[in-house]
Specification:
- By secondary structure, the protein is α/β, with parallel strands linked by helices.
- Helix content is 42%, strand content 17%.
- Strands 3-4-2-1-5-6 form a 6-stranded parallel beta sheet, sandwiched between helices.
- The protein is globular.
- The protein starts with 24 loop residues before the first strand and ends in a 10-residue tail after the last strand.
């Protein structure tokens, strides 16, 4: 069982969260081809291995933010997503439940507590400061924020989670972004080589390193 979180209170005069600059933040994006098996179920073995690597990174003083794809792909087990975007939104609403539940169990067994944040691009534009402070507040309190596009409300509003990772990295001024991919990608993903190249260019302009790694390789997060 994960220990109860003892919150560190950090409130600004305006009533919002206030935290100082947090060092050594890494964003890790897990692609749907890594997260899910070929039958569109969460790959328990693979995610457990990734969780153990993240635990090691945290022991070395790194703060980790996760961005996780796969909600539509998982939901496609229940909903035919080939007909209309409304079907993909409905599939995402199902898939998100199963994925976050599986992640909570796996990370909990590794003595880590996750939190969840679903975003549309409009959210980030209108509440940029609030979202940044909320993520930082989560990190200060030893949580691992798990962030995803809110495909239920606005399908692919960022153009895929690779580009969502870029936006979060820019907000947090992270040290690096790591994309865990199968490189070929998933049938239901909107990423791919073109999107990853675009993401890397955006980050290079902000002097943020981006690594695209084979998420199924043993201890790949610890190699860099």
């Amino acid at each position: 069982m994960v220990p109860r979180v003892n919150l560190v209170l950090a409130v600004s005069q305006g009533g919002g969260f206030f935290v100082g600059k947090i060092q050594k933040i890494i964003i890790i994006k897990i692609g749907s081809g890594v997260l899910l098996t070929k039958h569109h179920k969460v790959d328990q073995f693979r995610i457990k291995h990734i969780a153990n690597q993240i635990s090691a990174l945290r022991s070395d003083g790194y703060q980790v933010v996760l961005i996780v794809s796969g909600a539509v792909a998982y939901g496609s087990r229940f909903i035919d997503v080939s007909e209309h975007n409304s079907h993909r939104k409905l599939a995402a609403s199902i898939g998100q439940i199963y994925i976050i539940t599986a992640l909570n169990e796996i990370f909990g067994r590794a003595n880590m507590q996750i939190s969840q944040l679903l975003l549309t691009k409009e959210d980030l534009v209108k509440r940029q400061k609030d979202i940044k402070e909320l993520i930082e507040f989560s990190l200060v309190n030893n949580l691992i924020p798990v962030i995803n596009e809110n495909d239920v409300l606005d399908l692919n509003s960022f153009g895929g989670n690779d580009l969502l990772a870029v936006e979060i990295a820019k907000q947090l001024k992270t040290e690096k972004v790591i994309i865990l991919s199968t490189l070929q990608g998933s049938t239901y993903g909107v990423g791919g080589a073109k999107t990853k190249i675009e993401a890397k260019k955006h980050l290079e302009n902000r002097n943020i390193l981006m690594h695209i790694l084979d998420g199924k390789q043993k201890n790949v997060l610890l190699t860099i």
